[in-house]
Design goal:
CATH superfamily: Vaccinia Virus protein VP39
Helix content: 40-55%
Number of strands: 7
Radius of gyration: 18 Å
Oligomer: single chain
Largest sheet: 7 strands, mixed
Order of helices and strands: HHEHEHEEHEHHEHHHE
Structural class: alpha/beta
CATH class: Alpha Beta
Number of helices: 10
CATH topology: Rossmann fold
Strand content: 15-25%
CATH architecture: 3-Layer(aba) Sandwich
C-alpha cells in the first residue's frame, strides 16, 4: 500500500469523526463487550472506538495510518484519563503477533484498505481463536456508498481495487473471511449527522474529509462544479430535517464475527 498516496492523509478526519462517537459505543454494545479483554481498534482515527472500549475497562491498543490522527487520539485519551496504547501502522500489515487480541474492532476504517483480502486476513490473524471481530461498515445503499461511487467517477481508484462498500454486504464479508471464521452476524444501524445547510456540509467535507477533498484538488473547475452538483443531489436525498437545516441519515451495519 502506498501510504503517501492515501486520500485519508488529506484534510482532518477528526472533524468528521467527532460526529460519529456514538458508533463506537453502539458497536461495543452490540458486541456485548465486557471488561478485562485485550482489544485492538484498527484504523482508529482520533480514538472514538478505542475510547469506547477503554471506558469498558479493557486493555486497548489503537492503530491508524495517519500519524496526526494517532496524536489526536493520544491527546483525547489523556484528557479523558484513560490508558490506551496508540501506534501508527497499516491495516494490511498489523505489527502484532498472531492471536494477540481477544477482540478486534474497526468503525468505518479497515473497509477502506486497498487490499481487502490482506486486511481481512490480518484482522483474523491477530484475533485469538474463539475471539471476536466487530466492524461498523457502510452499506451500498447508504449516502457514503453513493458518495464513493461518485468519487470514483472523477478520480478512479487503482485498477483491480474492489469497492470498499463490499464490506457492508453479506457476500462481500463471506468472500473476505470465508473459512477463517465460525460465524458472521449483521445488525442494521443508522447514523445521523446534522449541518446548518448543504453548503455547510460541503464546506466541511471538501475541507476535512480526505476522499472528497482529493477529488476537488484533482479535477478542473468544470468537473468540480459537476461533482458538487452530484453531491448535492445525493445528500439532499438522505436529508431528514424538515426545518430548513440538514440532518443526513446514513445506514450501516454492525458486523459481529466469531473466529475459529
Amino acid at each position: 500500500m502506498n501510504t503517501k498516496a492515501s486520500p485519508w492523509k488529506l484534510g482532518d478526519f477528526h472533524v468528521i469523526g467527532a460526529a460519529q462517537i456514538t458508533v463506537g459505543e453502539w458497536l461495543c454494545d452490540d458486541l456485548n463487550l465486557t471488561a478485562g479483554h485485550r482489544v485492538l481498534d484498527v484504523a482508529c482515527g482520533s480514538g472514538n472506538t478505542a475510547l469506547a472500549a477503554a471506558r469498558r475497562n479493557n486493555r486497548v491498543t489503537g492503530l491508524d495510518l495517519v500519524e496526526a490522527l494517532v496524536e489526536r487520539a493520544k491527546a483525547r485519551t489523556e484528557a479523558e484519563g484513560f490508558e490506551v496504547e496508540y501506534v501508527t501502522g497499516n491495516a494490511e500489515d498489523l505489527p502484532f503477533d498472531d492471536d494477540a487480541f481477544d477482540v478486534v474492532l474497526s468503525t468505518f476504517g479497515v473497509m477502506f484498505a486497498p487490499n481487502q483480502e490482506k486486511a481481512a486476513s490480518e484482522l483474523a490473524r491477530v484475533c485469538k481463536p474463539g475471539g471476536r471481530i466487530g466492524l461498523a461498515n457502510w452499506t451500498p445503499e447508504s449516502l457514503p456508498g453513493a458518495m464513493f461511487r461518485i468519487n470514483a467517477q472523477y478520480v478512479p481508484p487503482p485498477v483491480g481495487t474492489r469497492p470498499a462498500i463490499e464490506w457492508g454486504t453479506v457476500p462481500g464479508l463471506q468472500r473476505l473471511f470465508g473459512d477463517r471464521v465460525r460465524s458472521i452476524e449483521l445488525f442494521d444501524r443508522t447514523l445521523r449527522q446534522s449541518f446548518i445547510s448543504f453548503d455547510h456540509w460541503l464546506a466541511t467535507f471538501r475541507t476535512y474529509f480526505g476522499p472528497v477533498k482529493n477529488v476537488f484538488d484533482s479535477v478542473d473547475a468544470q468537473s468540480a462544479k459537476a461533482f458538487e452538483a452530484e453531491l448535492r443531489e445525493n445528500v439532499m436525498r438522505y436529508n431528514r430535517a424538515t426545518d430548513g437545516t440538514l440532518s443526513v441519515a446514513m445506514s450501516y451495519v454492525n458486523v459481529l464475527i466469531e473466529t475459529r
